[in-house]
Amino acid sequence: MVTLDAPGQRLVAPEPRIRRYVAEDRGWVDELLRNAGAQMRIRRGAVVEPAKYAGYVYEHAGLGKGIITVRRSGRQLEVVAAAAELADPEILGQLIDVAVANAPDSCRRLWVVCHNAEFRLHQVLQRHRFRLCGVRPGAYDITRRRLNLLHLPAQAGGVDIRDELEFEFLPR
After folding, report:
1. CATH of the domain at 131
2. Residue 132 belongs to what domain range?
């Protein structure tokens, strides 16, 4: 919300903030993930529901604008999903930075699997020191058919979704 300090003075807009994802966020997070085609994620031959995992939200003026969810496994931290309104690279980048900064000290690897049509996410990950470490040609499409997940999108932005790309960040 934009408010006027006093007659004739400058406008003041609230600052965006990033905070932990809580249960009360679930409604708008589900909608954001659905709009981003990420309510269910296919990766490594399985399907996951990102909203079920811990994470961080980006909000501005009290409205949720972005989400990143993570899953810890031993000394690794998987970024299950990262989504923002209009795939805003600034929001995605800030969420990725928060996930990296808050990774446990014992974490030796952060990784994320995305599909070939998530161009903005690929760019943001690389700008934030993630490196491409794996490509699985046809993996998205094969899993989608094998698990009978034909309701999940087969295209995004006019691009056939086929392949999985894995990016990693090695903090130490």
Report:
1. 3.40.630.30
2. 12-169
56 touches 19 (CB < 8 A): yes
Does 153 reside within a domain? yes
Rounded Cα distance, 74 and 128, in Å: 23
What 3-state DSSP class applies to 6? coil
pLDDT digits 0-9 by tens, 95-115? 999 999 999 999 999 999 999
Tokens of 24: 């009360």
Phi, psi values for residue 97, rounded to 5°? -60, -40
Q: Is residue 81 part of a domain?
A: yes
Let me know if 44 is exposed, middle or buried by CB neighbors in 10 A (0-12, 13-18, 19+): middle
Number of independent structural domains in the chain: 1
* Rounded-to-integer distance, Cα 128 and Cα 123, Å: 9
Backbone angles phi, psi at 15, to 5 degrees: -80, 145
DSSP string across 63-121: EEEEEEEEEEETTEEEEEEEEEGGG-HHHHHHHHHHHHHTS-TT--EEEEEEETT-HHH
Q: Model pTM?
A: 0.85
Does the pLDDT value for residue 168 go beyond 60? yes
**Per-residue model confidence as pLDDT tens digits over 137-164:** 999 888 888 888 777 777 788 888 899 9
pLDDT tens per residue across span 15-52: 899 999 999 999 999 999 988 888 888 888 888 999 99
